[in-house]
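Read as amino acids, tokens; as here:

___
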Amino acid sequence: MKYDLGKKPTKGAQRTLNAFSETMLKLISQKRLEDISVSEICEVSTFPRATFYNYFDDKYDLLNYCWHIIAEEIQINEETKITSHGILKVYFDRIYDIFMENKSLLDKVLVNNNSSSAMINSFINYFKEIIHHVLYNSMDQFETTLPLELLADHIVATLLLILEWIFLEQHDTTKQQAHQYIDVLLGSDLPKFKARS
């Protein structure tokens, strides 16, 4: 991403970032990502192209910034000390809640961007990286002989499978039902936490 997410933006920069991200979310709820141009984003947000390119390389870079904003709302403390299934469910619940809060936007986006579109793939890949990062960084607390990378990949794939089934394929599912799916698909043999010495 061109914009440095590690630095605190000025008020002016934050207003500009908000305008571009709000415009992108509005536009993807109205049309396919492939039909959106940087010129249109600038016209709707009332900023010149030069300003856009000060912050983003292209519309895909802006889209990743939009995913970043959504992902910030679902971060959990990686030091949380609960069972392995508990961590998964806490994290899953936060993602589930964010998706439910944005369900009307997601439904509009899906009207114009099918589940195999570039926009949906961008969304899934971004969240796959975020979930993988958090899980992998807490894996050293698990008792397992499996390679941690393999275990993290397996868990992430399962959680995303459930989230895609609920929100992209639009199967009405309660959080409690989703927890049952996690239990069945991941099994009761998910590694437990190591005992602290």
